[in-house]
Amino acid sequence: MRATTLVAAVVLALSGCAGCSVQAGVGECAKQVDVNSSEVAMTEVDCSSSEAVYRVSSRERRTMCPEGDYLTESSGRSRTNGKTRLCYVLNVSEGDCLKPVNQYFERAACGAGVRKVTKVVDGQADRALCDGDDARTYSQPVRTICIAG
Q: What span, in angstroms and rounded, lies between the C-alpha atoms of 136 and 103?
């Protein structure tokens, strides 16, 4: 999968497409290209990067992501397949601090004006686990993320 991404990046670079971004594949991490934009447009980043706030959980050939609080990006339309949708989950750990910007989150230093991930529970998608904190639940992978603030 990495080789395909690398080839795509080289092709884009050789074609003079300096402003183009490489779309992440399932299991890979991504960040929003422009957090000030209301349109979801993500680009691949290394999962160890502090910018890797999202991870692609699935690529759907239907109009909806699985049940949950996914950030979604339409990746175009083809005559044979219809619209493809990328479904992003938060790529965070307990203790991470996040700054909300529009519909996205960015990692930030903990302090005033940021929100803190208080709990990450794998294998359960249940808002009640968050004891009143903001909850993000996902069915693929099954996970609950609690965010205070």
A: 13
SS3 content of the chain, % helix, strand, coil (to 5): 10, 40, 45
138-144: long-range contacts, CB 8 A cutoff, minimum separation 24: 138/57, 138/66, 138/68, 138/69, 138/70, 138/89, 139/66, 139/67, 139/68, 140/57, 140/58, 140/66, 140/68, 140/87, 141/57, 141/89, 143/89, 144/119, 144/120
Which strand ranges, in their side-by-side order, compose the sheet holding 97-101? 104-107, 97-101, 115-122, 142-148, 134-139
Residue percentage of the chain with pLDDT more than 90? 54
Tokens of 124: 């359960």
4, two tokens: 């395909």
| Residue positions counted in the chain | 149
Tell me if 84 sits within 8 A of 60, measured CB to CB.
yes
Please report the pLDDT score of residue 76 as a whole number.
Answer: 60
